[in-house]
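Quick one from the shared queue. A colleague (R.T.) flagged Rhomboid protease GlpG as missing a structural entry in our internal table.

Convert sequence to structure tokens.
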Amino acid sequence: MTKCQACGKEETAQEICSVCGKTYCSDHISRQNHNCFVDPRGVNMGGRTRVYTGTYGTGAAKETNPPKADYYDTDQFEQRHGYTAARSPPLWKKILNSPTYIIIIICVILQLVALGAIIFNNSALAFIYNSLVLYSSFDYILARPWTLITHMFLHSPTDIFHLLFNMITLYFFGRYLEQIIGKKSFVLMYLVSGVVAAIGFILLEGNTGVGLVGASGAIYGVLGAVTVINPNLKVFVYFIPMKIKYMIVIFVIISLMFMGDGSMIAHAAHLSGIVIGLAFGYYYRNKLREKTRQGYY
């Protein structure tokens, strides 16, 4: 004997609903005549909660809030029908799945190392930090080639705004760009921009042995690429709204005007980062256009 899940009627054989998988008598087997789970993919985006999208009762007695016992579990529905409803991944997965977030985390950790070396006068932490700094000397680079990469994850330990400004800029434009060109391409472009910015700094400023730290060169590369891909993107420069193509022009003028002024700002690295970023932007823009053309055929 089987029991109808709607009216409780017991019969020797009853049909099973192909949607919710429960047994019903001939009067209630129609989905219009019993509570039925319709579309879990459209209503359960946040986790494995019990959800319901149908109605309870028939005709004028229909209700939009059925009894709690009539809710169906999405787990059971997915196992029965062979697909998984879309869900938002947990925060830690979002972070680990984004190169931008990972770069920000590394920069913050190394900033804490630098601060720890100063606050606690820790020689071990100071050694770690100093071994990652790039000095504008080709002899030094040949001896410590890894500093071409590591310097772009360091920032001045005494200037917290250096880190803050760079990370805020990277947060907005880095995530934007990685969604357009892809994560692997973004990582490649970011690292190459940082390396080219460092080499450009040495070539333009001279083989002086001055220390170089900061993600600015790589981030200026990101800005350059975004400028080519979406030149009319609205941005705010010191709370002044403008298109990103005008912002880049301003940055280039500033870098050219103050290059070699002896300040602590690596204008040559900024300019080199913009140039390589523009080149990457042209490459990826053409690549995206080619994919779009192929999509029409």
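The CA atoms of residues 199 and 269 lie 8 Å apart.
The domain at 91-295 is CATH 1.20.1540.10 (Rhomboid-like fold).
Added to the table.
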